[in-house]
Specification:
single chain; alpha/beta; eight-stranded parallel barrel; 23 strands; binds alpha-D-glucopyranose; binds calcium ion
């Protein structure tokens, strides 16, 4: 497969706030491409696919953990934070990946599960064996499991308690996730320093950013619920000061699965900043809710709660990732509705969420896939795609836990979908062979050959978005409409950014969640008389009338991105 040169954004390479305009792509090393035929994806394989990612228009890769690990939690159970799991490659290969990505103007974000380690980590082994030794206090030990009773269990499918008895030390240890993932004791200054040391190690290796995994859970207390407690924020503030002093231009992104105000707290304030980015967990489930309820009210409500971020900060918006589609942050009523629409088979559920990929969730509807992406790319913040979703890959709900949506990338209709030359039985997970999503139908090669494929559509929408910095940098104003299925907002950018001079831009984005065509009237009093032009093809739309009203027709589950050109005063 060969790929033509991509569009490069003006100045992205030199912009310290590059993450505000970047398009991110989450790729698990294990799942993407196998370079040595042992059945497991590796760094060499990923390097060989950088041309593809560059062609697609990706600005930054997010790599989930590839550290030394027993892989009992997809690598989020780390046994050595400074080593690469041998089946994935070596530190030298990682350096090569960073260099080759940078040559292509692509950045690399690491994932850092700092809240916990694997029970195989030498720190934990030392801690359980020698309570008085240097690592004795590295974990949260207790003689009783009755501490911190306000703290909820997250992995409700597998864990009954956040405490597990260790037969070696004869004490309980605390864990927010699996019982093989003891939480580090952040009260201990030696732990705090060890974490800084690891972050420096990877920044020195050239990485451009770090995803702070499970960030709300660092500190716990008897009074609090163990989520975003004050000492946790104080620690992130200190980390941010270190990054600003020692590694300017690098980025921290928070994984905080919480309610809007709590997530936004991880941006910190203008005076006391914390993370540059935070994943937009509040918006994500509401996109899926709107698609099936055919109403925009929930999105309108959440957008008004989450758009304000401190200067220089940005949301990371996403539809899917390597975890279940979490439904923790919606009301019980909505959760039941979502299960009914999207997880009618109990196999599709996991913990408090749905373990399916994007295309199967949307029943492989091209209209819905386009609508969901158009929304993702128009919302405030920077979009994160999940590998394989650009070709509409399926999942395998017969696999356990979140492996359902971590199957090998489908490159070609050949053996193992072109992912690996191994004996098919040796693959880390089988390739998808379901009726609708079989790799002989859904693969990169076939979609490259077809100009109207989802892959080409996604690439095009990425490039249209990138040509308009307003999507990354601008503000958002919801506009009133007369239809409950319509969502309309104006993105505006006044052009104060370093590379755009005084170029200013306003874009009307309108989406219809209705399952039939609709006509909708939008109130745009500030733009009376303005003309509207389609961003994709340049088509002229009806102008906004003198009273500030415009009526548009939208096909089933469709959208427009329209440039607003105000009439000269
Ligand atoms: C994060 C990861 C998830 C992992 C958990 C525990 O939520 O996204 O995959 O299981 O942390 O490390
Ligand atoms: Ca391999």
């Amino acid at each position: 497969m060969s790929f033509t040169a991509p569009i490069t954004l003006p100045g992205l390479a030199l912009d310290p706030q590059w993450y505000r305009r970047a398009v991110f792509y989450e790729v698990m090393v294990r799942c993407f491409a196998d370079s040595n035929g042992d059945g497991t994806g590796d760094l060499g394989g990923l390097i060989s696919k950088l041309d593809y990612l560059q062609w697609l228009g990706i600005d930054a890769l997010w790599l989930p953990p590839f550290y030394q690990s027993p892989l009992r939690d997809g690598g989020y159970d780390v046994s050595d934070f400074k080593a690469v799991l041998p089946e994935f490659g070596t530190l030298d290969e990682f350096r090569e990946l960073v260099t080759k990505a940078h040559e292509r103007n692509m950045r690399v974000i690491m994932d850092f599960p700092l809240n916990h380690t694997s029970d195989q980590h030498p720190w934990f082994q030392a801690s359980r064996e020698d309570p008085d030794g240097p690592y004795g206090d590295f974990y949260v030990w207790s003689d009783t499991d009755k501490k911190y009773e306000n703290i909820r269990v997250i992995f409700v499918d597998t864990e009954e308690s956040n405490w597990t008895f260790d037969p070696v030390r004869r004490q309980f240890f605390f864990h927010r996730f699996f019982s093989h993932q003891p939480d580090l004791n952040f009260e201990n200054p030696a732990v705090q320093d060890a974490i800084f040391d690891i972050i420096r190690f990877w920044f020195d290796m050239g990485v451009d950013g770090i995803r702070l995994d499970a960030i709300p859970y660092l500190f716990e207390s008897e009074e609090g619920n163990g989520e975003g407690e004050p000492p946790t924020h104080a620690y992130i503030q200190r980390l941010r000061r270190m990054v600003d002093d020692e590694y300017p231009g690098r980025m921290l992104v928070a994984e905080a699965n919480q309610w809007p105000r709590e997530v936004a707290a991880f941006f910190g304030t203008a005076e006391e900043p914390e993370c540059h980015m935070a994943f937009d967990f509040p918006v994500m489930p509401r996109i899926f809710y709107s698609l099936r309820s055919q109403t925009s009210g929930e999105l309108v409500k959440i957008l008004s709660e989450t758009t304000d971020v401190p200067p220089g900060a940005a949301w990371g918006v996403f539809l899917r990732n390597h975890d279940e589609l979490t439904l923790e942050m919606v009301s019980e009523e909505y959760r039941q509705a979502m299960y009914g629409w999207y997880a009618y088979d109990p196999r599709m559920r996991s913990n408090v969420g749905i373990r399916r990929r994007l295309a199967p969730l949307l029943d492989n509807s091209r209209a819905e896939l386009e609508l969901a992406h158009a929304l993702l790319f128009a919302l405030p913040g920077s979009p994160f795609l999940y590998y394989g979703d650009e070709i509409g890959m399926g999942d395998n709900i017969w696999l356990s836990d979140r492996d359902a949506s971590r199957t090998p990338m489908q490159w070609t209709p050949d053996r193992n979908a072109g992912f690996s030359s191994a004996d098919p039985g040796k693959l880390y997970l089988p390739v998808v062979q379901s009726l609708v999503y079989h790799y002989s139908l859904i693969n990169v090669e076939a979609q490259l050959a077809q100009s109207r494929s989802l892959l080409h559509w996604v690439r095009n929408v990425i490039h249209v978005r990138k040509a308009h910095p307003t999507f990354g940098l601008g503000s958002l104003q919801v506009q009133q409409t007369d239809h409950e299925s319509a969502l309309a907002f104006v993105r505006s950018y006044a052009g104060s950014g370093m590379h755009f001079g005084d170029q200013s831009e306003e874009i009307l984005c309108i989406f219809s969640f209705a399952h039939n065509p609709i006509s909708v009237t939008v109130q745009m009093p500030e733009h009376a008389g303005a003309s509207l032009t389609d961003l994709f093809g340049g088509g002229q739309f009806p102008s906004i009338a003198g009273d500030g009203v415009v009526t548009l027709t939208l096909g089933t589950q469709s959208f427009y991105w329209l440039k607003i050109t105000d009439r000269p005063a």
